[in-house]
Specification:
about 425 residues, BirA Bifunctional Protein, domain 2, about 35% helix, binds 4-amino-1,4-dioxobutan-2-aminium adenosine-5'-monophosphate, binds magnesium ion
Length: about 425
């Protein structure tokens, strides 16, 4: 027999009596009256492999080397068995240990700090494996959306010289004696690229030195951003809605088994892809919050608590638009009707999850942008190149940023963002 069969193919394609060779890791191990039961795990699932008494004693030496998380190759014959997970098991004829594993540090029931210290091993868990598959298909659906709609993928830098989202959350870097920063957003670089490519997007890592530790903030996250020349706010909101739905549709097509394994109610997502996202203004959002007894005044920003109360009212994502300028970034275009408001929009995920996308129309007038920079107490010198974009052939344009882990957190129904990324960074714990 040549080649290997994955667990999913053994369960799905092979019949009673067919031979299979599988490689994977020992997920569970039980010895019972001379028999050995190995539940084997590979990327695709788990399968029970049984050594009867005779086989177990014939392979005694290899069997003695088997332990939890050892890597093994098993060869055997497929048998139907209602009690086995997946309805089939493998009657083992041969077994080889590839890499031994003694006293695997994670046995179940450990606390979160211990698990985070052992993230490099914890990462093998079936739950995290399922989350990362959901993330894979989500990214695939998002990418496909841009690739099928005339957008150019570009690769902006991570080492930057200026703040996009305010100085408070910048991570400084020593760049050969000069002070540089880790990027908070690729937005300004994307803006430079629309003057040639017109519709651009990127996935980069963004960094935020967040002050507070919350369930939805990472210090390092995956940022999907898009920027388009000639696009107004409605155009961009339509892109966001279609893109979000395309991502979820792909997850539902390819990864609903993973969602179910994680315990996510798939019908909520099915409803999302077939429903128009409601749009409310910041003013209306404040009124809803006040009617729910939240003590928020007009002009204040929404935190996680406000967004939780607000989005519990919705079953699908909701756009909030037209924010007060003083709670948003200097680059957002001022409303023509009310100079206190900007053409900004956030997309808030329902069920209490809150902001997953932040976007806006950009200020395209040189004079207005310069006065916003001065008004915010920023140094125009630092933004000279950004102002150049308004000096030479300025165009109306808009863009947005999606926090990929925020979206994974909602789509998979996680209660903490840390499990939406393989290696979340914490202030007191950078490794592994
Ligand atoms: O709302 P933000 O700060 O907007 C920007 O950075 C814009 N410059 C993007 C653009 O228009 N090109 O961030 C965008 C999104 C948020 O909606 C949120 O989903 C996510 O990035 N995000 C975070 N995700 C995880 N951890 C954090 N600390 C995050 N900060 C923002
Ligand atoms: Mg935001």
């Amino acid at each position: 027999m040549t080649g290997y069969t994955s667990v999913i193919d053994v369960l799905g394609k092979l019949d009673e009596g067919e031979k299979a060779r599988i490689r994977g890791w020992v997920y569970r191990l039980r010895r019972l009256g001379g028999k050995v039961f190995i539940v084997l795990r590979d990327y695709s699932g788990i399968i029970q492999c049984v050594l009867d008494g005779e086989t177990a004693s014939r392979l005694e030496e290899e069997v003695s080397r088997v332990d939890i998380e050892a890597s093994v190759i098993v060869e055997g014959v497929v048998r139907r068995d209602k009690r086995a997970p997946g309805g089939k098991e493998l009657k083992v004829m041969d077994l080889k240990v590839v890499g031994e594993s003694h006293n695997f540090p994670i046995k179940g029931g450990e606390g979160i700090d211990y698990l985070l210290d052992n993230r490099h091993l914890w990462i093998r868990s079936r739950r995290l494996t399922s989350v990362f598959k959901v993330k894979h298909y989500l990214l695939e659906g998002l990418r496909d959306y841009f690739n099928s709609n005339g957008w150019w993928e570009v690769t902006p830098p991570i080492l930057t010289m200026s703040a996009v989202e305010g100085g408070a959350t910048l991570f400084p870097v020593d760049f050969f004696g000069k002070k540089a920063f880790l990027s908070q957003s690729a937005q300004f670089y994307l803006e430079t690229l629309i003057f040639s490519l017109e519709k651009v997007w990127s996935i980069t890592t963004s960094f935020r030195a967040e002050r507070s530790r919350t369930r939805r903030h990472l210090y390092e996250y995956t940022h999907l951003e898009a920027e388009a020349a000639w696009y107004g706010m409605e155009d961009m909101m339509r892109v966001v809605e279609e893109m979000v739905k395309a991502g979820i549709r792909r997850v539902l097509e390819k990864s609903s088994g993973d969602l179910e394994f994680i315990g996510r109610d798939v019908s909520i997502l099915e409803n999302v892809v077939s429903t128009r996202f409601p749009v409310i203004t910041y003013d209306e959002a404040v009124q809803i919050l006040q009617s729910k007894g939240v003590s928020i005044k007009w002009g204040e920003d929404f935190g996680a608590d406000e967004e939780r109360v607000l989005t519990k009212e919705f079953e699908v994502p909701v756009f909030v638009t037209m924010f007060p300028k003083k709670i948003k970034s200097f680059y957002m275009k001022i409303s023509e009707e009310n100079p206190e408001l900007v053409y900004g929009f956030d997309l808030l995920a329902p069920e209490g999850y809150g902001e997953i996308v932040g976007g806006s129309v950009r200020e395209d007038s040189y004079d207005k942008l310069l006065s916003r920079i001065v008004e915010e107490g920023l140094n125009p010198e630092d933004y000279n190149w950004y102002l150049d974009l308004r000096r030479y052939g300025s165009v109306p344009h808009s863009g947005f940023g999606l926090g990929v882990e925020r979206m994974v957190m909602w789509v998979a129904g996680l209660d903490h963002i840390r499990d939406a990324t393989p290696y979340p960074r914490f202030r007191d714990r950078l490794y592994p």
